[in-house]
Design a protein that fits this description.
The protein is α/β, with parallel strands linked by helices. Helix content is about 30%, strand content about 20%. Helix 1 runs antiparallel to helix 2, helix 3 crosses helix 5 and helix 6 packs across helix 7.
């Protein structure tokens, strides 16, 4: 590989003495969509309240998958869960993806990039039983697959983190061509969207990550986009996007 990121470590706990800033995938996504929203959310720390019940299904499925990855029998837990959780679980377990040999589950990482750490938690890293390919899996239960999965920040950062951390994961020298990123969406049926990796894709991810982290760290202004990318944004009434230029 002609391009590489420094080895990353797990779990995502950064020392208070470390001067690097800490960035998440959500921060990168917000920066790309609207820098004014980034200012409100991550500079001024104006976190808009959310309803925890909106995340119940995804939370429960992820917990079950964590138990399942340890070889535990989840059937005893299902009897006390909501019907939509049971249905989602049965649909998922009928697919091959949760049965791939598990390398790591709910794997936390901190990836050094420039003078920052990118942190996150990957749902599952598994090995395809037939091809031996490393699958970086993100389960999608409540939310859908990104509109452009090949260039989504989750795809880029998570893929880079796993390839950089092959030694931590006790993998042999992991080449990008031996891995892929997969969104596994669970609705009425299970749908997988697989993004194959190779050296060219990996180098592009690194370039995008390093460029954007540098932009964020050197920013002194947070301009509005030409049009609002999020019609449900809580800051729409105060950010100035509604004001028309004369």
């Amino acid at each position: 590989m002609s391009a590489s990121l420094p080895p990353c470590s797990s779990p995502p706990s950064v020392s208070l003495q470390d001067e690097r800033s800490v960035l998440s995938v959500n921060q990168l996504k917000t920066w790309q969509k609207c820098r004014k929203k980034y200012l409100y959310d991550y500079v001024h720390q104006l976190h808009w309240p959310t309803d925890p019940s909106n995340f119940r299904l995804g939370r429960d499925i992820h917990k079950l998958l964590d138990y399942q990855s340890r070889g535990l029998d989840c059937r005893v837990l299902l009897q006390d869960l909501e019907s939509d959780t049971k249905s989602c679980w049965e649909t998922l377990m009928a697919s091959p993806f949760p049965h791939f040999p598990v390398i790591a589950n709910e794997w936390g990482f901190q990836l050094p990039v420039s003078s920052a750490y990118l942190i996150g938690r990957i749902d599952r890293i598994a090995r395809h039983p037939d091809t031996g390919e490393i699958w970086i899996i993100d389960w999608k239960t409540g939310t859908g697959v990104p509109k452009f999965p090949e260039s989504d920040w989750q795809t880029m950062v998570y893929s880079a983190a796993v390839i950089a951390a092959y030694q931590d994961l006790e993998l042999p020298d992991l080449s990008p061509k031996d891995a892929c990123f997969a969104y596994v969406e669970v609705k009425e049926t299970v749908r997988d969207i697989v993004i194959p990796l190779d050296t060219r894709v990996y180098e592009h991810f690194i370039h995008q990550i390093e460029t954007t982290v540098s932009e964020i760290q050197s920013a002194s202004e947070y301009p509005l986009p030409e049009s609002c990318p999020d019609h449900y944004c809580p800051y729409e009434s105060i950010c100035g996007i509604r004001v028309k230029s004369p």
